[in-house]
Design brief:
single chain; mainly beta; 5-stranded antiparallel sheet; two-stranded parallel ribbon; 1 helix; 7 strands; 43% strand
């Protein structure tokens, strides 16, 4: 699965309680994690699916619901 596909897919996120990986979502039976990176040196976020890094991105996708 490509990063572009993931960023265009709907996902409902919940907080994990950890600073490095603040959000998790279950999408089609897979565990998605968002990692916060050392911004601005690195991209703002990385997406991991089932422990495998898919890619980096800066802007939170509009189709992803982030908890308040």
């Amino acid at each position: 699965m490509t990063l572009a596909h993931c960023l265009s897919r709907s996902a409902s996120w919940r907080r994990t309680g950890t600073a490095e990986f603040p959000y998790t979502a279950l999408v089609a039976g897979q565990t998605w994690l968002v990692r916060l990176n050392d911004f601005p040196v690195d991209p703002m976020y990385s997406l991991l699916i089932d422990g495998r890094e898919v890619g980096d991105f800066d802007d939170w996708p509009a189709c992803w619901s982030r908890p308040n």
